[in-house]
Amino acid sequence: MTEVLLIVLAGILCLVGLAGCVVPGLPGPPLNYVALLLIHFFVIPVSTTVLVVLAAVTAAILLLDYLFPAWFAKKYGATRSGIIGSLIGMFAGMFLTPVGMILGTLLGAVIGDMLAGRNERQAMRSGIATFFGTIMAVGLKLINAGIITFYVVLYIIRFYV
Fold first, then answer.
1. What is the residue-wise DSSP string for 83-137?
2. What is the pTM assigned to this prediction?
3. Do the Cβ atoms of 65 and 144 come closer than 8 Å?
4. Is the pLDDT of residue 1 over 90?
5. pLDDT on residue 153
6. Of the residues 42, 77, 140, 160, which has the fewest C-beta atoms closer than 10 A?
7. What share of the chain in percent tops pLDDT 90?
8. What pLDDT does residue 34 have?
9. DSSP symbols for 71-87
10. 130 near 105, Cβ under 8 Å?
11. Mean pLDDT throughout 94-105?
């Protein structure tokens, strides 16, 4: 009975983790990893290699989630004001929707660069780069969360078979 409750909890964590890849404020992949740990410690042991590799990948992706937008922006000429604007836009957009967060990042970068004296073309270029970095980070989080969810499901099936 306890295993069933933990499996249900792991399933919920996986779903919320997948949603957290695009919904601001939810940690995404770490929730999926917690689900995997629940399965490992309370249902059926998960391969140590799987646990270590997925922990390392999850940590790396959390770091890249913050670095990608700024790195792309800087690479394509964003000013300090553009990067700060993208962060402000991202946080402001968080309260709307996931799309609002992504568009807020783009608009914030463009507005910040224009306030710093860049022309429209330069500001748009760095804004699109920031937008692309954000999309890349979301994609990596979704892939990571999907892989962890796959392992959770795999080990649940192993438990019952």
1. HHHHHHHHHHHHTT-HHHHHHHHHHHHHHHHHHTT--HHHHHHHHHHHHHHHHHH
2. 0.84
3. no
4. no
5. 97
6. 160
7. 55
8. 98
9. HHHHHTT--HHHHHHHH
10. yes
11. 80
Residues 145 and 84: beta-carbon distance below 8 Å:
no
Cα separation, 132 vs 42, whole angstroms: 40
| Pair 74, 83: CB distance under 8 Å | yes
Q: How far apart are CA 38 and CA 159, in angstroms?
A: 13
Specify the 3-state DSSP secondary structure of 100: helix
Report which listed range, 12-26, 47-61, 127-141, is most confident.
Answer: 47-61
Buried b (16+ CB within 10 A) or exposed e, 85-94: bbbbbbeebb
Q: Which token pair is 51? A: 């646990």
Nearest to 149 by CA among 38, 24, 23, 64: 38
Output the CA torsion sign for 133, 134, 135, 141. Answer: positive
Mean pLDDT, rounded, for 6-10: 96
DSSP secondary structure code for residue 119 in this structure: -
